[in-house]
Specification:
Pfam families: DUF4760 (PF15956). The chain has 160 residues and is an all-alpha fold. It has helices at residues 18-31, 34-46, 52-59, 65-85, 91-97, 99-108, 112-118, 125-131, 135-153.
C-alpha cells in the first residue's frame, strides 16, 4: 500500500523583526506628509489616463503641479519597493503595509514602457519586480485592475 505523504507548502519566511516594523512604520509616516497625501490623492483617485497620450500629457509636462504629484508618488513608491525588492524588509510585512503599491502598479504599470523609453530606462523597476514577485502579489494587482475597470465602467454622476 503506497504511503501517504503530506503536500509540501511554501517555505515559511523568517519572522518579522522590530527593525522591519520600524522601517515599515517610517514609510507609513512619510505617507502622512500633507503634500504627499495631496499628491497621492491626485494620482490614485483623480488622474485616470486611459491612453498613452493622456498619460504622457501629465507625466512629461514638467513644471506643472500634476507632474510634480506624479514624481512625488512614483519616486516614493519606487524607493519603498526597493526596500522589499532588495530584501531590506520582511516581505509579508511589506505586503501588509503596501496595498497602495499594488493599486498604483495595476493602474499605471502598462504605461511604464513609455517612461522607460522617453525618460528613464529603469523607471518603476522595483515597483514592477515587487508587484510580480509572487502569485499572491500578482493576484492583488489583478484584483486591483478589475476594481479599476469596474469603476471606469460606472456612469459618472451629474456634474462630474
Amino acid at each position: 500500500m503506497p504511503r501517504k505523504t503530506k503536500a509540501k507548502s511554501a517555505p515559511k519566511s523568517r519572522p518579522a523583526t522590530h527593525a522591519d516594523a520600524d522601517i515599515m512604520l517610517r514609510t507609513y509616516e512619510h505617507r502622512r506628509d500633507p503634500k504627499l497625501r495631496e499628491a497621492r490623492n491626485y494620482i490614485l483617485f483623480q488622474w485616470a489616463p486611459t491612453t498613452t497620450e493622456e498619460f504622457a500629457t501629465t507625466a512629461f509636462n514638467f513644471g506643472t503641479q500634476e507632474q510634480t504629484f506624479f514624481r512625488m508618488v512614483f519616486s516614493y513608491w519606487e524607493q519603498t519597493a526597493a526596500l522589499a525588492h532588495r530584501g531590506a524588509v520582511h516581505q509579508e510585512l511589506f505586503d501588509d503595509f503596501s496595498g497602495e503599491l499594488f493599486f498604483l502598479y495595476a493602474k499605471y504599470g502598462d504605461f511604464f514602457p513609455i517612461m522607460r523609453e522617453r525618460l528613464n530606462p529603469n523607471f518603476g523597476r522595483h515597483m514592477e519586480a515587487v508587484a510580480n514577485a509572487t502569485p499572491e502579489r500578482r493576484a492583488r494587482v489583478e484584483l486591483a485592475r478589475k476594481m479599476i475597470a469596474s469603476r471606469r465602467a460606472q456612469p459618472k454622476a451629474a456634474g462630474q
